[in-house]
Specification:
homodimer; 140 residues; mainly alpha; Arc Repressor Mutant, subunit A; 2 domains; two-stranded antiparallel sheet; 5 helices; 2 strands; DNA-binding
Chain lengths: 140, 140
DNA sequence: ATTACTGTATTAAGCGCTTAATACAATAAT
DNA sequence: ATTATTGTATTAAGCGCTTAATACAGTAAT
């Protein structure tokens, strides 16, 4: 787990996003049990109260289910997880497009920019499995 | 001018980004005079101190020049402006790619995702001038 | 039954951001 | 010379986020 936190935004918001991503990417499988609030807070280096707050919002979105004393579990509604993944991806794209257009880039330019730079030297890793994986190995 | 501010991040940071974009996109031409701190603060609906703080950081980056009592002016170093534009665009792309990969998307998928959705219904506007403009009408 | 581990709630303190209300020096405009 | 406008600095107050230090209720394990 990464837990890269910056001081520019509320920590509980960032924790929420990280937890979301770990769920919709399949890193936290449907139905699996999550670590306790205290343990995750330790991992992330934050106060348990802060992690608790992140969970409160995460649960409100239906991605996790809480059992009073047993702990928290990832939802088993794989369809919802998948939809959430698409929603987040779409939102990220919209944000990106908005910024690029504000910078004066046209749609055509943006596509070329992304194509050129994204396929160039990639992230170095998984240069083998890449190329024909249409699902990225995520979710159900 | 937009001045869309959210409460999730420091306002002066957001003001800084907006000012940056207006400069590197050519909306604030090189050498042009900017409105006063007080006036811009009014436009944005923030306290003059907050706008002042944004300017302090903006000047530190060299995008503007301050003349004690005459006001602030956009730099005339068009090369720097252009480089800054590319730097911001690259940073935005990197952020986007990172999020998408965390969501489980592969590079190939991302390119297809962007190509499909970015060229689909666009932003509705400038459907006429789009298509062959390789510079977006920005900077020098 | 006792122990350990869940989620949850409360209180107080500290810190950064923001605002409000001024004030001052330097220059441009009249 | 006077007035208006510029950037800039200062002080105090309020607010949200974060942390620390607890505490409690419910359940699983022993």
């Amino acid at each position: 787990m990464s837990w890269k936190l910056d001081s520019d935004r509320p920590i509980y918001t960032q924790l929420l996003e990280i937890l979301q991503i770990n769920i919709v990417s399949g890193h936290y499988p449907p139905g699996s049990k999550l670590k306790s609030v205290r343990e995750l807070a330790m991992d992330a280096g934050v106060n348990p109260n802060t992690m608790q707050r992140a969970f409160a919002e995460l649960e409100q979105q239906g991605l996790i289910r809480t059992e009073r004393t047993a702990g928290r579990f990832v939802t088993e509604d794989t369809e919802m997880v998948g939809k959430t993944r698409e929603t987040i991806a779409g939102a990220q794209l919209d944000l990106f497009l908005e910024k690029m257009e504000q910078l004066g880039f046209g749609r055509q330019e943006i596509v070329e920019f992304v194509s050129t730079r994204a396929l160039a030297q990639a992230g170095r890793r998984n240069s083998a499995s890449a190329g024909s994986d249409t699902n990225g190995g995520a979710q159900a």
